[in-house]
Model the fold of this input.
Amino acid sequence: MKLVTAIIKPFQLDAVREALSEIGVHGMTVSEVKGFGRQRGHTELYRGAEYVVDFLPKSKLELAITDEQVDQVIDVICHTASTGKIGDGKIFVTSLEQVVRIRTGEQGEQAV
Done:
């Protein structure tokens, strides 16, 4: 089992969720986060004063999936979330040692 963590632009969230649902991924956790990478933020003007916005708003998706779904999930997220511009985001894939469904006690892939 794998944990896929994707950091994407917030306005891409609905499209990515729908695309993942179409390939059979129905559960995910979404968080509103802030951060920066190579993009390094930007400068804004507010009431005549210029200030730097270092941390940009992003959406963080976390999906627990089977090993067989990994490549397809990565392809769908990359294709759907890509705008071709800097700041599109990142995808991280880590191994899950154990998953337990609290309600039933199911473990492993049955809990996903």
Observations:
- DSSP finds two helices and six strands in the chain.
